[in-house]
């Protein structure tokens, strides 16, 4: 077996973890966050919401089913991934499987990382690292090969990550009878797939695009990375869109931007929710769902205006998982009802949105 270079993961609290490289050998820095999902690393790595982050996978064995083809459909959507490329700054695992086996695999995780120039390290005690992140919260970190000072710490939340990952021009998908404007804050392709499956025309616009004079039947606000407070231009446009009473739905970052447009405040979670097994309850009912999540910020329920109310609540920590307007067709979910990868318990929210159009 080829020799792997030794690496160090340094955290801004002074902690040092030693491991080996299996990806592209470059120093990199960002926010260290953990994901407790057991599968789905191709989808997670290509989820734009991980932009600027060093992703720690708590499941110990990673890489054993390889990577599917990086192919695209005629409409430009990835066949098996969630975007056009890897967005995470790095992936950090305990045990990397150099051998892989899966009917749909065409290459190893390591070769994919090298091809896209993304760092990957293994041999890290991810249990100890995750306990540290749970106790102290998500931290700035950096992966270095030769010297501790070869790269500086970076706080990606101080950068407008949404502007980095959003599309730069208007893109239209499908030819359905209803038109939905999709505000791209870093949209996962499965959100677009779920809308197209329900026979709508999707008009994907950049995060700061003024769509308010366009003709459309519904507005959809996507997921995205970083701090929602950097997206004031989107909030202003959403607020203007509320004046026309057209149905609005948001997912993840979209939940936070809709809440901000309605006057609520957002705050940073200690270590966020990144997993496939977050339990949420629909407010006012005993209906509970297992959800896929990836976010580091949350809506402050206490700041919701009189016209708004929580739609879902996280059953682990009581945080907001969605909101709805009391009289108008506006609602959102903090989790991912399209869940790619993850449970599909809540995909009915797409049906609810399309029925309102």
From TrEMBL:
<feature type="active site">
    <location>
        <position position="336"/>
    </location>
</feature>
<dbReference type="GO" id="GO:0005524">
    <property type="term" value="F:ATP binding"/>
</dbReference>
<dbReference type="Pfam" id="PF00988">
    <property type="entry name" value="CPSase_sm_chain"/>
</dbReference>
<keyword id="KW-0067">ATP-binding</keyword>
<dbReference type="GO" id="GO:0006526">
    <property type="term" value="P:L-arginine biosynthetic process"/>
</dbReference>
<feature type="domain" description="Carbamoyl-phosphate synthase small subunit N-terminal">
    <location>
        <begin position="5"/>
        <end position="144"/>
    </location>
</feature>
<feature type="binding site">
    <location>
        <position position="49"/>
    </location>
    <ligand>
        <name>L-glutamine</name>
    </ligand>
</feature>
<feature type="binding site">
    <location>
        <position position="297"/>
    </location>
    <ligand>
        <name>L-glutamine</name>
    </ligand>
</feature>
<feature type="active site" description="Nucleophile">
    <location>
        <position position="252"/>
    </location>
</feature>
<keyword id="KW-0665">Pyrimidine biosynthesis</keyword>
<feature type="binding site">
    <location>
        <position position="294"/>
    </location>
    <ligand>
        <name>L-glutamine</name>
    </ligand>
</feature>
<dbReference type="InterPro" id="IPR029062">
    <property type="entry name" value="Class_I_gatase-like"/>
</dbReference>
<dbReference type="InterPro" id="IPR006274">
    <property type="entry name" value="CarbamoylP_synth_ssu"/>
</dbReference>
<keyword id="KW-0028">Amino-acid biosynthesis</keyword>
<dbReference type="GO" id="GO:0006541">
    <property type="term" value="P:glutamine metabolic process"/>
</dbReference>
<comment type="pathway">
    <text>Amino-acid biosynthesis; L-arginine biosynthesis; carbamoyl phosphate from bicarbonate: step 1/1.</text>
</comment>
<keyword id="KW-0547">Nucleotide-binding</keyword>
<feature type="binding site">
    <location>
        <position position="224"/>
    </location>
    <ligand>
        <name>L-glutamine</name>
    </ligand>
</feature>
<keyword id="KW-0436">Ligase</keyword>
<comment type="subunit">
    <text>Composed of two chains; the small (or glutamine) chain promotes the hydrolysis of glutamine to ammonia, which is used by the large (or ammonia) chain to synthesize carbamoyl phosphate. Tetramer of heterodimers (alpha,beta)4.</text>
</comment>
<feature type="binding site">
    <location>
        <position position="256"/>
    </location>
    <ligand>
        <name>L-glutamine</name>
    </ligand>
</feature>
<comment type="similarity">
    <text>Belongs to the CarA family.</text>
</comment>
<dbReference type="InterPro" id="IPR036480">
    <property type="entry name" value="CarbP_synth_ssu_N_sf"/>
</dbReference>
<dbReference type="GO" id="GO:0004088">
    <property type="term" value="F:carbamoyl-phosphate synthase (glutamine-hydrolyzing) activity"/>
</dbReference>
<feature type="region of interest" description="CPSase">
    <location>
        <begin position="1"/>
        <end position="178"/>
    </location>
</feature>
<comment type="function">
    <text>Small subunit of the glutamine-dependent carbamoyl phosphate synthetase (CPSase). CPSase catalyzes the formation of carbamoyl phosphate from the ammonia moiety of glutamine, carbonate, and phosphate donated by ATP, constituting the first step of 2 biosynthetic pathways, one leading to arginine and/or urea and the other to pyrimidine nucleotides. The small subunit (glutamine amidotransferase) binds and cleaves glutamine to supply the large subunit with the substrate ammonia.</text>
</comment>
<dbReference type="Pfam" id="PF00117">
    <property type="entry name" value="GATase"/>
</dbReference>
<feature type="binding site">
    <location>
        <position position="253"/>
    </location>
    <ligand>
        <name>L-glutamine</name>
    </ligand>
</feature>
<dbReference type="GO" id="GO:0006207">
    <property type="term" value="P:'de novo' pyrimidine nucleobase biosynthetic process"/>
</dbReference>
<comment type="pathway">
    <text>Pyrimidine metabolism; UMP biosynthesis via de novo pathway; (S)-dihydroorotate from bicarbonate: step 1/3.</text>
</comment>
<dbReference type="InterPro" id="IPR035686">
    <property type="entry name" value="CPSase_GATase1"/>
</dbReference>
<protein>
    <recommendedName>
        <fullName>Carbamoyl phosphate synthase small chain</fullName>
        <ecNumber>6.3.5.5</ecNumber>
    </recommendedName>
</protein>
<feature type="binding site">
    <location>
        <position position="226"/>
    </location>
    <ligand>
        <name>L-glutamine</name>
    </ligand>
</feature>
<dbReference type="InterPro" id="IPR050472">
    <property type="entry name" value="Anth_synth/Amidotransfase"/>
</dbReference>
<dbReference type="GO" id="GO:0044205">
    <property type="term" value="P:'de novo' UMP biosynthetic process"/>
</dbReference>
<feature type="binding site">
    <location>
        <position position="296"/>
    </location>
    <ligand>
        <name>L-glutamine</name>
    </ligand>
</feature>
<feature type="active site">
    <location>
        <position position="338"/>
    </location>
</feature>
<keyword id="KW-0055">Arginine biosynthesis</keyword>
<keyword id="KW-0315">Glutamine amidotransferase</keyword>
<dbReference type="InterPro" id="IPR017926">
    <property type="entry name" value="GATASE"/>
</dbReference>
<dbReference type="InterPro" id="IPR002474">
    <property type="entry name" value="CarbamoylP_synth_ssu_N"/>
</dbReference>
């Amino acid at each position: 077996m080829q020799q792997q270079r030794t690496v160090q993961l340094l955290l801004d609290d002074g902690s040092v973890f030693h491991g080996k490289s299996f990806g592209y050998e470059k120093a990199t820095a960002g926010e260290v966050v953990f994901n407790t999902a057991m599968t789905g690393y191709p989808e997670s790595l290509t989820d734009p919401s991980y932009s600027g982050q060093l992703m720690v996978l708590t499941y110990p064995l990673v890489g054993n089913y390889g990577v599917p083809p990086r192919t695209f459909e005629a409409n430009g959507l990835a066949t098996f991934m969630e975007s056009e490329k890897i967005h995470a700054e790095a992936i950090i695992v305990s045990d990397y499987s150099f051998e892989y086996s899966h009917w749909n695999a065409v290459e190893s995780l390591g070769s994919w990382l090298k091809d896209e120039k993304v760092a990957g390290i293994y041999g890290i005690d991810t249990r100890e690292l995750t306990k540290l992140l749970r106790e102290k919260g998500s931290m700035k970190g950096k992966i270095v090969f030769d010297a501790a000072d070869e790269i500086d710490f970076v706080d990606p939340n101080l950068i407008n990550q949404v502007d980095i990952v959003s599309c730069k021009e208007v893109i239209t998908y499908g030819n359905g009878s209803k038109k939905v404007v999709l505000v791209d804050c870093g949209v996962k392709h499965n959100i677009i797939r779920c809308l197209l499956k329900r026979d709508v025309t999707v008009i994907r616009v950049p995060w700061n695009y003024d769509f308010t004079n366009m003709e459309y039947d519904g507005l959809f606000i996507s997921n995205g990375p970083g701090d929602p407070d950097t997206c004031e231009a989107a909030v202003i446009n959403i607020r203007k869109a509320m004046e026309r009473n057209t149905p609005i739905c948001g997912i993840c970052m979209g939940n936070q931007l809709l809440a901000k447009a309605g006057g609520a405040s957002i705050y940073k979670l200690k270590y966020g929710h990144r997993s496939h097994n977050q339990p949420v309850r629909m407010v006012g009912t005993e209906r509970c769902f297992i959800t896929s999540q990836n976010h580091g910020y949350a809506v402050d329920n206490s700041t919701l205006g009189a016209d708004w109310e929580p739609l879902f609540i996280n059953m682990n920590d009581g945080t907001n998982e969605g909101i709805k307007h009391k009289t108008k067709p506006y609602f959102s979910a903090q989790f991912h009802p399209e869940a790619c990868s993850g449970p599909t318990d809540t995909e009915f929210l797409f049906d609810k949105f399309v029925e309102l159009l």
